[in-house]
Amino acid sequence: MKQIQVSDHDYDTLMELSKELQLQDNDWNAFPYFWEPMSKKEELNFHGEGEIVKVYNPCYGEGPEYPEDTALYNEDLWVKYCESMELALGTPYSDEHQDEWIEFLESNGYDKLTFDMNDVSEHNPSLFKQDVKDFIGANRHHLGKDPHTYARTFFRMPRMAKLIEAIYRLNKQPIGTINKEASRFVYNETRT
Q1: FRET pair for 168, CA 20 to 30 Å: which of 46, 61, 90, 149?
Q2: Torsion of CA 69, 70, 74, 75, to 10 degrees
Q3: Average of per-residue pLDDT values in the chain
Q4: What does each C-alpha distance from 106 to 43, 56, 77, 158, 187 come to in angstroms?
């Protein structure tokens, strides 16, 4: 068996990371897998058929906002809408007003955009689930709704698979303690 020399620090790091790779949960994903943060985010529906509607006034160059916010922050416009619909002054916005309110806004120079709420992964991958959990904890305010870890696979990337297999085997953990997917590769030395 050939040997390579590494510093004590690098050796300890490799042993620690090899163990962590074998022991982490793989969320039933195929080997080899990696992790990314994922959350739900609004994405523009270019066909105007999205489930979420936002409005904006192109004359002012302001970004799109929810119809409710437009009613709240444009009080004069909301009053005009209430008068045109013969609603009592001071009527608060509710979702039952949305379609008519949007039509009113469009007749007053506003445009609308529609969005869908989609799962979107952040491109900060890691071989370690804990890295992604830590990233989510530190960056939750920048992520979308319900940020969580998401496992993906490298199974069509043979060099990545070989690299990860080699790292797995650096510090073999007892077969009963490692995840099932890891055990196939840690204890199958004949695989090339």
Answers
A1: 149
A2: -60
A3: 91
A4: 22, 9, 12, 54, 66
Q: What is the pLDDT of residue 161?
A: 87
| Torsions phi, psi for 75 (to 5 deg) | -60, -40
What is the sign, positive or negative, of the torsion defined by CA atoms of 128, 133, 136, 137?
A: negative
**CA quadruple 84, 69, 102, 91: dihedral sign:** negative
Rounded Cα distance, 76 and 59, in Å = 17
**Of the candidates 126, 156, 144, which has an alpha carbon nearest to the alpha carbon of residue 36?**
126
The pLDDT value recorded for residue 190 is 44
Report residues of the chain scoring pLDDT below 50: 189-192
Count CB atoms within 10 A of the CB of residue 133.
16
Token digits for 47?
A: 């066909």
How do 33-44 and 52-56 pair as beta strands?
unpaired
